[in-house]
Amino acid sequence: MVDWLPNLPVVWIGLVVLAGMVLLTAAIYAVVMLLAEGERAAALKAVSPGMLPPMGILFALFVGFLAVGVWGNADRADEAVADEASALRSVVILSDDLPPDLRVRMRALIRSQIETAMNDEWPAMEERRANLTAVPTALAGALHLAVGFDPRSDGQAVAQRELVASVEDALRARRQRIIVSDSSINAVKWAGLVALAALALCSIALVHSGNRTTARIAMGVFAAAVAVVITMLASQAQPFSGQLGLDPDALEQVLPRGG
After folding, report:
1. Which of 113, 133, 124 is nearest to 241 (CA)?
2. Apex CA 242: angle with CA 238 and CA 244, to 5°?
């Protein structure tokens, strides 16, 4: 599947996919009906309808296999963003126990990290070019600040431990977010899905080659179902891309507004 398709609005994805299925169905119908003439007509009409259920089962199993991966990636992406936002929110809350100058620095670092995620990392994830090569400077600074803090009381010592743990959780969630952002359905799986759909359409055309009206109706219904399936998969194949992609609202909600 071309990379630009998942970035379209869902309606446009559906229209593009439907147009493609119409062309594929029309081509298969034309070829089968051309072959179902003359001496070959009797042989093609004798194709057993019993082959249709196995083809449908194979197609359904393959769709289920793809759907599990797609929605699993979407769930992992959503969980990573939620965990990151929760961890950063904990850092902001725990920073209240730091001395005033350190509190201001810690909140400034968290603000910088969230703004970087929103302005730089999110566009990169939408285009599936984000990677773990660059070190998150703001989070690294927050971790060093938390580790280097010299607590003056038991409460501050507890706050330091929790701060370090929360920053590490944010780093871990960010890493997971970027890893999941590169997930998609590869070309081999898309090719397998389209091939199975084409074979099923061929089977329908062969079984109903004796009645062209029935063949057109059956093939049209199946093609429409395939278009719906492909649209659903394509619109959510990339967790951070397209109309249904995750946005940074959860991070924006924990953005520190002041010192």
Report:
1. 124
2. 85
Kindly state the tokens that stand for 201: 């359409």
Residue 184 tokens read as 């998609």
CA triplet 205, 206, 212: central angle to 5 degrees? 50
Those residues whose C-beta lies under 8 Å from the C-beta of residue 125, and which sit 6 or more positions away, are: 177, 178, 181, 240, 241
| Alpha helix segments (H runs only) across 10-153 | 10-35, 40-45, 52-94, 100-116, 122-126, 137-148
In this structure, are residues 70 and 236 in contact, taking their beta carbons and an 8 Å threshold?
Answer: yes
| Share of the chain residues as helix, strand and coil, in percent rounded to the nearest 5 | 80, 0, 20
Taking the C-alpha atoms of residue 67 and residue 225, their distance in angstroms, rounded to an integer, is 15
pTM of the shown model: 0.84
Query: What digits encode the pLDDT tens for the residues 160-214?
Result: 899 999 999 999 999 999 999 998 888 899 999 999 999 999 999 988 888 889 9
